[in-house]
Amino acid sequence: MPKIEAAETGARIDVFLAGALGGEYSRSAVQRLIEEGRVLLDGRPVRKNHRVTAGEVFDVTLPEPVRLEIAAQEIALDVVYEDGDVIVVNKPRGMVVHPAPGHPDLTLVNALLAHCGESLSGIGGAMRPGIVHRLDKDTSGLIIAAKNDFAHRSLSQQLKDRTLSRVYEAVVIGRIREDFGTISAPIGRHPTDRKRQAILKQGGREAVTHFEVVARYNGYTHVRCRLETGRTHQIRVHMAYIGHPLLGDLVYGRKKPEKGLSGQCLHAKALKFTHPRTGEEIRLETPLPPYFTDVLRALGEPVD
Predict the structure, then answer these.
(1) pLDDT, the chain, mean
(2) Of the candidates 20, 11, 57, 28, the residue with the CA atom closest to the CA atom of residue 160
(3) DSSP 18
(4) What is the DSSP letter of 59?
(5) Which contiguous run of DSSP H or E holds residue 173?
(6) What is the C-alpha to C-alpha distance for residues 219 and 170, in angstroms, rounded to an integer?
(7) Catalytic option among 85, 136, 138, 249
(8) What is the number of H-type helices and E-type strands within the chain?
(9) So what's the architecture of 3-60 in CATH?
(10) What tens digit of pLDDT does each residue of 38-74 get?
């Protein structure tokens, strides 16, 4: 039963705990914990609308992970790094990370179960064994999974304290004038479209993206983005917010495919983390995939 102390005043209990638990539980999952009486304050169950006060200490009883029978499937993986605690995979564009409605199999989790056997953390829940963070289906690149709960907790904490570094490259629509910049705008679920995220003036979670221009083309810009936070669709939402949606992003950008892409041109290129067991700093990088370099060739020569 972890004890979690509030450092600030004012946040709703579900928002506070979702953040305090390092992204392992969504707000809806936290709400279920509250409904089940698993969150106590001074020995009594808290209400769902409780707003935390600095110094309050919550006793949270987390349920034991229940593993469903997800099929292990022999799917080729591009393993960039692997040891007894973690595995880092270069995920191809088009692969879904974990089973979900509409995608029951052929996911990264199915492939990891075949590759790792039972050596995956159970903290991610029945449908997401080992998964520490996620990439969208059409986002390619580096993704890390934990082989045990010890590693999972360490990596989740690194995500929370922002020491796990993730660098992406993308092609966006329009020519960005600034050589670099920072986007700080809170992100939350869209008020009317539950499948989308949006910039929210109230109720959103802090989201910070740093970007720099790699090259400019006629009508497009190749950018490198570093995530300070890790909200759902963060780069896609933030770049659209400043008027430069990602090329191929039919959700937050133009509604028709461009340069042969139906889906965002976004690649998780570099990853840096502290190894959970050894304390060694691990730095990994993967080249831009063919679909990305094909887009750059289609854009022609860079312009000043």
Answers:
(1) 91
(2) 20
(3) H
(4) E
(5) strand 165-173
(6) 14
(7) 136
(8) 6, 15
(9) Roll (3.10)
(10) 999 999 999 989 999 999 999 999 877 555 568 899 9
DSSP for 136-181 reads: -TT-EEEEEEESSHHHHHHHHHHHHHT-SEEEEEEEEES---SSEE
- How far apart, in whole angstroms, are the C-alpha atoms of residue 4 and residue 281? 28
Q: Which two three-digit tokens encode residue 197?
A: 């995220």
Question: Domain 166-268+292-298 in CATH: superfamily?
Answer: Pseudouridine synthase (3.30.2350.10)
Domain ranges of the chain: 3-60, 64-161, 166-268+292-298
pLDDT tens per residue, range 231-284 = 999 999 999 999 999 999 999 999 899 888 989 999 999 999 999 999 999 999
Residue 193 pairs with which residues in a beta bridge? Answer: none
Q: Give the number of other Cβ atoms within 10 Å of residue 55's Cβ.
A: 9
CA distance 236 to 202: 20
Q: Which of 188, 190, 170, 197 is nearest to 264 (CA)?
A: 170
Report CA 271 to chain centroid distance, whole Å. 13
pLDDT confidence of residue 82: 97
Q: Stretch 70-99: mean pLDDT, rounded? A: 95
Which element (helix H / strand E) includes 5? strand 3-5
**pLDDT band at residue 24 under the 50/70/90 scheme:** low
Distance CA 55, CA 8 (A): 8
pLDDT of 294: 96
pLDDT at 203: 80
Give the CATH number of domain 64-161: 3.30.2350.10
CA neighbor of 184 nearest in space, from 227, 245, 136: 227
Predicted TM-score (pTM) of this structure: 0.78
- Is 149 part of the annotated catalytic residue set? no
